[in-house]
């Protein structure tokens, strides 16, 4: 079945295959506010992005900082035009898909939509079935949880999937030590049986 706008399998969002690709990402960790964790993003010899570093739970002398031990990357917002900041419309797709090779650490996937507060994120665990091997992880958009400043909000709101501004990955397990995750690409995707939030019925020509 073709939808009103035509069924599409995927919408590429971000790739991490060239140095130019990596320039479209921002890196952050608690070192930015005086902590001791370190995080970097590099291009591997195989042409994949590698987000890696070392997590430290040591607190700086600044007593206003009561928690450390985090690291994250996110895609940079695209340059604004007279019509506003360009966003991705993922409403015709059911999943956010990531091609990754991770370790045994725990990660979150983060989505920022066109909301008033920069701290508002939709988050979901990046469950890796085969650490150390490449795998494609597909997360239904509807399964993301609305958070602000890292806290799950009591009043959950639906993701504004027509206006996604950034996507990213963050480290969630506050354990000291090294981490490393390689990322090939991030896309909005359908399976052969889905068209956004609707189940797709094959047309007669497909059945034949």
UniProtKB/TrEMBL annotation:
Residues 16-183 form the NADH:ubiquinone oxidoreductase intermediate-associated protein domain. One of its GO terms (biological process) is NADH dehydrogenase complex assembly. It is found in: Mitochondrion. It holds the Pfam family CIA30. PANTHER family: COMPLEX I INTERMEDIATE-ASSOCIATED PROTEIN 30, COMPLEX I INTERMEDIATE-ASSOCIATED PROTEIN 30, MITOCHONDRIAL. Belongs to the CIA30 family. This is NADH:ubiquinone oxidoreductase intermediate-associated protein 30. It comes from Phascolomyces articulosus.
């Amino acid at each position: 079945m073709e939808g009103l706008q035509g069924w599409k399998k995927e919408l590429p969002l971000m790739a991490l295959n060239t140095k130019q690709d990596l320039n479209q990402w921002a890196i952050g960790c608690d070192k930015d506010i005086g902590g001791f964790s370190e995080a970097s993003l590099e291009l591997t010899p195989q042409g994949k992005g590698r987000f890696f570093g070392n997590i430290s739970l040591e607190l700086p002398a600044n007593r206003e900082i009561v928690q450390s031990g985090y690291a994250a990357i996110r895609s940079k917002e695209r340059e604004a035009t007279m019509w506003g900041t360009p966003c991705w419309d993922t409403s015709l797709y059911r999943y956010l898909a990531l091609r990754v090779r991770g370790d045994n650490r725990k990660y979150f996937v983060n989505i920022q939509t066109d909301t008033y507060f920069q701290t508002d994120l939709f988050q979901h665990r990046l469950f890796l079935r085969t650490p150390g091997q490449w795998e494609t992880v597909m997360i239904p958009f509807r399964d993301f949880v609305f958070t602000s400043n890292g806290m799950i909000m009591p009043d959950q709101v639906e993701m504004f999937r027509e206006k996604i501004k950034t996507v990213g990955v963050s480290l969630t397990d506050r354990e000291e030590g090294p981490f490393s995750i390689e990322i090939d690409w991030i896309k909005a995707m359908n399976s052969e049986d889905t068209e956004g939030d609707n189940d797709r019925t094959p047309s007669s020509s497909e059945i034949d």
